Amino acid sequence: MKEYIAFDSHKHYTLVEREDVQTKRVVQQRIEHQRGTIRGYLRNCEPGTPVAVEATGNWYWIIDEIEQAGLAPRLVHPRKAKLMMGMINKTDKLDVHGLNVLQRNRTLPTVWIPPGEIRDLRELTRGRMVLTRQATRLKNRIQATLAKYGLGVRQSTDAFGKGGRKEMTSLVPQLPAHTRWMTDLQLEVLDTLTPRIERIEARLKQLLKRTPPMQRLESLPGVGTILAAVIAFEMGDVRRFAGAERFASYAGTTPRVHSSGDKTRYGQLRRDVNHYLKWAFIEAANCVALHHKTHEERHVSKLYASLRQRKGHSKAIGAVARHLAEAAYHVSRRDRIYRDPSLGQRRGRRARPPHEPTCIGSGSECDTPSEYIHAPHEGEEMIG
After folding, report:
1. Separation CA 377–CA 128 (nearest Å)
2. Which alpha helices (H) appear in the chain, and where do they start and end?
3. Per residue in 74-114, pLDDT tens?
4. What is the pTM (predicted TM-score) of this model?
5. Does the CA dihedral 160-163-167-172 come out positive or negative?
6. 3-state helix, strand, coil in the chain (%, to 5)
7. What's the CA gap between 114 and 383, in Å, rounded?
């Protein structure tokens, strides 16, 4: 390697620093963003030279151009890099130089880069999550509006199912004029979101293939087709994690720990994590909570019931989510289906019975496992 190269990328431009390994000569240059400019700038560099790039919002196309130029991109964890630089002042020139210093010291904190195909596929599961969150917010707001005036769907368990919507149609006219108009508008928006979410799910089912890795993920309690796809896309190659605890931390299912002397306090779940994995395991945990009385013999049901009684629903959900995250690591790493600790199942002997509920979406959307099960191709690399 003849030189160190680092990028400090922004929305409209990238500041590049090239440092010669032998002479220590440093050259900085600003590149205006336009497709092809970064590839053109790097065309005369030695093939295989590492290029440090912070994980900003527009790193996809920058990584693509570095790879097309024949160089090796290294995606940098921004927060860890800033801490390791230890600089008081912050400028673009200092930041890009700090990345090269970390490269020179071989302490650059990097994250895994998924292949372009996987980055593209993840937009389906991530986009679905955005739409389902919007739908959930609308449902909550509509029900809260009805509750303000002493109204509510009482004859149906699902307020937005066929029976629930029929009952809601008779309740909305009882609202004041402006509130009624706004509620009708929100219902219209909700009706446009639902078929779009179904279109995403249909597209996923067309692309997903039934393979052993996804069958193993679907053997986890509360995990169905969509959640299994999210976990698979975001987890990537499980071998990049040193252990189940590391993966659970990456997935945002471990609490913050404050320990001093003889006192240890556990705080809220961490925020600087993979939010998509965190969402998936929390959703699966909520599905477990919803059906814990139906499957009281399962370990996750006992775990939820015990902690809910002592520490409340939220912490119980967090504990179940962590168990599921660690279990996802083990079933993927050991090529086995989920083994329930309470039932003493022998490995590989029991799959989920067809009647067991699994969460396929947000909230309480539960269903039986689908015949369509996603899996990445064997040996395919992914990143969280």
Report:
1. 22
2. 37-41, 59-68, 78-85, 92-105, 116-148, 162-171, 177-207, 212-218, 225-235, 244-250, 275-290, 299-311, 313-334
3. 999 988 999 999 888 889 999 999 999 999 999 999 988 98
4. 0.77
5. positive
6. 50, 15, 35
7. 5
